[in-house]
Amino acid sequence: MATQVFKNAMLFVNNVDLSGNVMSLALSYEAESLDETAMGANTRKKKGGLKNHGIDVTFFQNFSCVDATLFGLVGCQTSIEMRACNACSSAGNPIWEATYLLQSYPPFGGGVGDMLQTAVRFEPAGDLRHCAVAS
Prior knowledge:
Layout: E1 10-13, E2 16-17, E3 22-35, E4 46-60, H1 63-70, E5 77-83, E6 95-102, E7 117-124, E8 129-131
Antiparallel strand pairs: 1-2, 1-5, 3-4, 4-7, 5-6, 6-7, 6-8
């Protein structure tokens, strides 16, 4: 069984490489579960509905890079491209890309002695594309 250590992800936001500032990165992808159970059925019947996806990122704050990229994107749609490994795309390292909305951005937060960080969630503004080679 092939395994991979998640330690060198690639993240481009608005065509800016923020990979070196990423502490954690998670992509979610799901479909709504719609109930289509009719009278007389003994078991619920589900049908897949609209898809949804989002990206949760925690950055080590760097005001000249992370803040400079994200601050102006609040309320705007932007393109994001990511890979599990910061290397050429392939079947084993596919590209995930879409247009996203950044609804809010907390520039910093934490307690005394903590690393300065910011956590954001990018909401979908278009279909998620998954491909093995650059498009």
